[in-house]
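[job 0412] stage=complex_fold ligand=pyridoxal-5'-phosphate status=START
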Amino acid sequence: MNTRQPSEQTGDWVARSLASVWHPCTQMQHHESMMPLVPVSHGRGAWLFDADGRRYLDAISSWWVNLFGHANPRINTALKDQLDLLEHAMLAGFTHEPVIKLSEKLSALTGHALGHCFYASDGASAVEIALKMSFHFWRNSGKTDKREFVCLRGSYHGETIGALAVTDVQLFRDAYGPLLQQAHVVASPDARAAEAGESAADVARRAAKQLEQLLAERGDKIAAVIVEPLVQCAAGMAMYDPAYLAEARALCDRYGVHLIADEIAVGCGRTGSFFACEQANIWPDFVCLSKGISGGYLPLSLVMTRDEIYQGFYDADVKRGFLHSHSYTGNPLACRAALATLDIFEQDDVLERNRERAARLTTALMPLAEDERVMHFRQRGMIWAFDAITDDPAFSSKFFASALQHELLLRPIGRTVYLMPPYILDDEESDSLAARTHAVFDEVMRG
Ligand SMILES: Cc1ncc(COP(=O)(O)O)c(C=O)c1O
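[job 0412] stage=complex_fold status=DONE, emitting structure tokens
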């Protein structure tokens, strides 16, 4: 257990950070009471350490970005090599090997169904790009009325104004409501909504009916439907059946609407296949990737799209082009980190090894899954979640604080506890993660 008092150095970091850094997604006053600020000096493998040697198993991959551990030797070597070659060059008018190779490799992973990659830095920027590209494509095709978007109940696509407009998490969007364009919000296929006798696939088909109704009524005004394939992560790891994606693809085809798959959280093997959409045997019109694509090293996001959509912008007229950019678009260091990440997938047969890892952790979590204070225990690929049966509004912050005492970094969403560990846990780490999560849960539920 982590019980020692902070040393002068770590205590000093906390005080200086609170005095000068505005931390993300946080009511800063809470750092003075229920949400302790954790100073980190270094990371190794699945672990984060502070300067006093306290350690935390990063069981949520530092907000779902870290795939192969901290200070991964192979990604480090690639980055050190790249650092001596080219740290950055603008991508407008210039190109470089890492961005070319990465685009080719990603396209090959889709069987070349999505032939072009457009780059940015954060996930929300990729969502903005996909929305803008969809609208602009229809405009270039003479369909200027197609300017509306559809998202799912409980969707999360990021915090910038455009991405927030297709986000249905009231806590994040309420304050900015007057700034946001209205989107259509349709039923989520969340399998937890199953009525008696209904399977997850039944829930998916029921939700798809609502989408169909909307597209039938307003398909000529709608540019795109945006979904988080298979798992709506920020909504509390709402998992759903691939049947929904297959239905959504068919409906989008029928009504001439784009399908945007936001795989920022669920791509890169997180749900068991490299792209989550593969489990529904579909390709969307746009895929957004970020987070894990750089192994959790550097901000990198991208939008992959079909060649027909790319061709819709290809013209002598500059205004028909996609005139969007960010200064760090296609940064060579970030692309090189991504290439090293893809190499690890290939060389270590990661998707197959993850199936073994997932089976082990699921077995180790069974006593927790069967705890009578737990409901909706669920798993897909390398994501596990369950809902605590509690009304305590402070459940999440109590759990976070208690987990730190047990050397775990876990940050429940409301009363949903989830694990999204990096793809490197050994058997001992897996078993210990499961046992400690249960111990923390028991401690918090006993009050
Ligand atoms: C599905 C999804 N889309 C978009 C984003 C936004 O990404 P970023 O925080 O990098 O802007 C996130 C972040 O959690 C996400 O989970």
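Residues 383 and 420 are 5 Å apart (CA to CA).
[job 0412] exit 0
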